[in-house]
Fold this sequence. Notes:
The chain is α/β, with parallel strands linked by helices. It has 7 helices and 10 strands.
Amino acid sequence: MNNKFQIFTQADKEAAAAEAGEHLNLMLTEHKKTPVLLLVSGGSALGILDYVGSTSMGENLTVSVLDERYSTDVAINNFAQMQKSDFYQLAFDAGSSFFGTLPRQSESMPELKARWETNLKNWNKENPDGLIIATLGMGADGHTAGIFPQADKEKFKNLFESENWVTAYTAKTQHAERITTTATFISKIDIGLVYVCGLDKKTKLSEVIKNQSEINTLPALLWHKIKDTRVFTDIV
Length: 236
């Protein structure tokens, strides 16, 4: 279980994103001489990266995404979306490394899953004293990363709580073909920066903070497995 679970509340979503970004920038700066694996979430959580400066990055930083949409469409694929950001260019110019998750030509979903998982496990093996940081978000349904609620506990366990660090499956949602890090991997994250804004998420966020419900119906409860979780929100 985690050592810390802190809530940081701001007046609006822009201020919450700025505070989360400032925390991330400070962490990367403090650990610039340490191997750091940074996994970023897509969607609104990408806004956190706008507040990270070039001086916090360098050759010890490796960047990937926390979950992926299996698509070669650059308007859908999460890694391709990140590549459009100033953050990506700053990290690239600073000599940082990347684990890309844009499907290669003729690469199947299982093949991409295997390539990405191999990269994550190799990084962990080569950097036993490295730091894993992730940015996370939450949908109004309580999903986090690409881990969506499942009514069937056994199905959830097989998909997300096996020994695998990455899983590929078809979700009942938009952009159904998903490849995501699992609950097993999330428990290995050292610091999680969670960005959750909007009143439509208030009920689920309250349940997460109180550590209520079941993980299969409220996957965001997995944040409690992260060693140091910091939630940035405008929800009062």
